[in-house]
Amino acid sequence: MPSCDDLCKIIEAKHHDPFSVLGRQSENNLTKIRLHLPYADSVRFADKGPEIPRLAETDFFEYTAQPGELPEHYRFSWIDKEGRHHIDYDPYDFPEQLPEFDRHLFGEGKHWHIYQKLGAHRYNVDGIDGVLFTVWAPNAERVSVVGDFNRWDGRCHLMRVLGNSGIWELFIPGLDAGCLYKFEILNRQSQEILIKTDPYAQQYEHRPKTASIVVKEDAYQWQDAKWMTYRKNRDWLHEPMSIYEVHLGSWQRDDAGNFLNYRELAKQLIQYVKDMGFTHIELLPITEHPFDASWGYQSTGYFAPTSRHGSPDDFRYFIDLFHQNNIGVILDWVPAHFPKDFFALARFDGSALYEHEDPRKGEHRDWGTLIFNFGRNEVKNFLLASAIFWLEEFHLDGLRVDAVASMLYLDYSRNENDWIPNMYGGNENLEAIAFLRELNTVTHEQHPGTVMMAEESTAWPQVTRPTWTGGLGFSMKWNMGWMHDILDYISRDPIHRRYHHDQLTFGLLYAFTENFVLPFSHDEVVHGKGSLLNRMPGDEWRKFANLRLLYTLMFTYPGKKLLFMGCEFGQGTEWNFNQALDWYVLQHPRHQGLHTLVKDLNHLYKNHPALHQYDFNHSGFDWIDCHDVEQSIISYRRKGTNDDLIIILNFTPIVRENYHIGVPFEGVYFEIFNSDSAYYEGSNVGNREILSEPEPWMGHQQSIHLTLPPLGGIILTRQTKTINSSAH
């Protein structure tokens, strides 16, 4: 017979091991069945079995059975106080389910697939179906599963703690996919009761509701085997990569202004992306998040695609269809910080579990968010498993890791006395560095062919170099320095650009120190910055000409490409996450011309190896002239194994007649692209055939004279014999 103290702890929902009190107990060679059912009026064994008597003035029901009287797993039938009838197996009649091996790996931070174990999963024990709930809450005195199946009452389904792992577990027979649940946690020290969503849940209610949802086993039939085989062996270093960055909630909406389903989005977006010539899309975080205005960067669901656009299988369909159309899908992923929402990870078990206790290490004051404790094995495992989850369960082609700089530096965006140095007295976050190296090692080993991109805004060395050479191991890094320099330069009136010519050329001093992506991302069209179009100087004609020139520079400059949605057609207003893009502007010729230009640049970039084959190597680039400061002109070569292009960019609105440059080879040069073409609503200044002359210039034995369009860029190729062509 349990002590009164044990019974009281069950009644008060404070018992850490309800299995020692409830379920099947052996006492004096007899079997005791003890149930705690707060809403029961009467209870008996199922199939017209004997009644299970109530212990006087309690919600306990107890039955003494003879040896061999009860089956291996008994069912009981009960009537609640509203007269409704229920038949259940006793959840306290089942042994521990989570193996010690899984607990050990998790404690070591080495269980890449822990999401298959922790959380809530449909489960079968001895032929009985139900749901196995597990959660890590080491500072809890008691944890209960609450949900729509038990009136959200923490007294009904108390969990048991598994040894010293900090993991709590309960198998509840009879439950199925679709049920709503949370965890009710009693903190050991403060006695505070917390109601938390499942950190490992794979689906959540549509915001503003926050309950976790039990999902069915993944039975989706993928159709992307051809893509996955190609991806595993592809040479992404030397292949074109032009990325269209998309916020699914505002790319397009239905006629009533509502979100589109992942399946609807796939069909519309794929056709558009293919036509425009992009090779990949990158999604702003679709990990579940409560606040639309965070754009997904303050996630509360690290294993769940947001329910705003449908179910997990709808998202699988989305990715599958992109792959069938030979388009890769990259996801923005945020391990740098998480929000303080009371229902999620913040002080999960009443303690600083996922974060640091000291706000000097555990809080981003600028963002009002918390910082993961990368030195804690279970937290590190949570994040590593999340990365593997998206790559494995959803076939994603890579992750772009947000805010890496904030992870690397302990004093990132902090006042002088608001940070704690590392063990050596420095500002490097040694635990985060180790985490990032392990993240990149594990993802590349587990899923070869996928890419990991860093949004890292400082000069931290070797971000994209292998971990065994001391690097962080990322595949690529956003070139934030280039982006800031170029946007600052192009936003100036052309008359002043000669004083800032170094902003055009400085990037080539470090262009090959990392594997760079050139990003014109969502960050450049928010927070009062305006649209890219309206950051261009001058009247309307000059704004469009400058933007066409900017894109010509980006697509011909070393590095992979990224362009945020709406920038490709010159959206005039700043991006608004809460409404669809201004597609109507494509009715206007200049917007349509810009749209066509981006499409043509994408196809040129993909079709000419010179523009992508050696993006990360000196051998793919040569300056022709970077010193023409007074005329604000630069010219350079892009080189592939069997491809050679010359690019000349004029950053003033003045037509440059008879402009003289040196060229490496004898032959006929002709334009294959001109940003000032009438096709793009330019002024149509350009060149036809240009025959080289044996006049040494700029270090070359041959040279050409040509006409440069105003605020325009041209791309030249060479043929050894004269052909008739019209470049514009």
From TrEMBL:
Q: Which GO terms describe its biological process?
A: glycogen biosynthetic process
Q: So where's the catalytic machinery, residue-wise?
A: D402 (nucleophile), E455 (proton donor)
GO molecular function terms listed in the Swiss-Prot or TrEMBL record: 1,4-alpha-glucan branching enzyme activity; cation binding; hydrolase activity, hydrolyzing O-glycosyl compounds
Domain of life the protein comes from: Bacteria
Q: Which keywords does this Swiss-Prot/TrEMBL entry list?
A: Carbohydrate metabolism, Glycogen biosynthesis, Glycogen metabolism, Glycosyltransferase, Transferase
Q: Which NCBIfam families match?
A: branching_enzym, PRK05402.1, PRK12313.1
Name of this chain's protein? 1,4-alpha-glucan branching enzyme GlgB
Say which species the protein is native to. Answer: Methylotuvimicrobium buryatense
The taxonomic lineage of its organism, from the top, reads:
Bacteria, Pseudomonadati, Pseudomonadota, Gammaproteobacteria, Methylococcales
Q: Which gene encodes it?
A: glgB
